[in-house]
Amino acid sequence: xxxxxxxxxxxxxxxxxxxxxxxxxxxxxxxxxxxxxxxxxxxxxxxxxxxxxxxxxxxxxxxxxxxxxxxxxxxxxxxxxxxxxxxxxxxxxxxxxxxxxxxxxxxxxxxxxxxxxxxxxxxxxxxxxxxxxxxxxxxxxxxxxxxxxxxxxxxxxxxxxxxxxxxxxxxxxxxxxxxxxxxxxxxxxxxxxxxxxxxxxxxxxxxxxxxxxxxxxxxxxxxxxxxxxxxxxxxxxxxxxxxxxxxxxxxxxxxxxxxxxxxxxxxxxxxxxxxxxxxxxxxxxxxxxxxxxxxxxxxxxxxxxxxxxxxxxxxxxxxxxxxxxxxxxxxxxxxxxxxxxxxxxxxxxxxxxxxxxxxxxxxxxxxxxxxxxxxxxxxxxxxxx
Length: 385
Description:
Elements: E1 6-11, H1 20-23, H2 31-47, E2 52-55, H3 62-70, E3 80-85, H4 92-104, E4 109-114, H5 116-123, E5 131-135, H6 148-160, H7 162-168, E6 169-171, E7 174-179, E8 182-186, E9 189-193, E10 209-214, H8 225-229, E11 240-246, E12 252-254, E13 257-259, E14 262-263, E15 266-275, E16 280-281, E17 287-291, E18 294-299, E19 306-310, E20 315-317, H9 319-328, E21 375-376
Parallel strand pairs: 1-2, 1-4, 2-3, 3-21, 4-5
Antiparallel strand pairs: 6-20, 7-8, 7-19, 9-10, 9-17, 10-11, 11-15, 12-15, 13-14, 16-19, 17-18
Helix pairs in contact: 2-3, 2-6, 6-7, 6-9, 7-9
């Protein structure tokens, strides 16, 4: 066992609230739902031997809900819970600040509750810390479906066992977008929308898209990557991506799920393989660039963006591979004396209702055996506000 027994948790309080909840049929993921998932995550972390958890602070009720849960009997097997002490801006800067602080604190893994956008922000600052993603966003192509208990167990095994980390993680791909002197990374997709206005952040109308680049394309995904997945499936581990031209004249017409409950015909002109480290310049002379389903910026003829597939993305935990390797090593079993019975787990407690949360409660960290020192930001300089 390594000396790293700390895991970070970033639960985006604003995930699953964009326009696609109105134009599609995605269900809301409330604070109560996120607390329920986190309660299961903590059970898995405790079972894996994690001793300490550092969580992002917020004002939406997640932090105050965890404080209450950590004081209950059902949390007796939880790791010690601490919260970062940082200014809360209620923007993505909170996620950036929290990620950098967790990396600086030496966490062995970071569990992310959010969608593609949240994971993109975390990945920009996570360095070599493995990520375990739990879907609570609208677009959830990057985070694969996983039971939170199992996610916590896998994160804990990776954080506490070096051999598990080697066998159960991999380096993901990214799409690097260069435009007018700036650079952005996408985890899943980069799209060009034929529009003169940025409009709402979320991109959900596939008929507005003229070009699409994908780091991977899975036919069972939700979002723009499903377009490529329905014509040329490309896995997360393949050393290539996809480049698609959409519109007329159409060589293919597919009807992928581009949003929850939203399937629409998409005309595809051509599909080609996107090689690693081979920059591609957008064909469109103007439009809006969308990164992981979110419109980011406009461009014109003089500053057409360049897209490059790279192999230097975040380190990702393969939950299935992690648990399979742990089982092969016998880490998930223990021998008992003849006739002995394992101890029963403590009873679970209900999650506090959202209307009962206290948003003014102190942001100090707390656990069943009393308060612990707050984790403070070492160097917040350079974090956008």
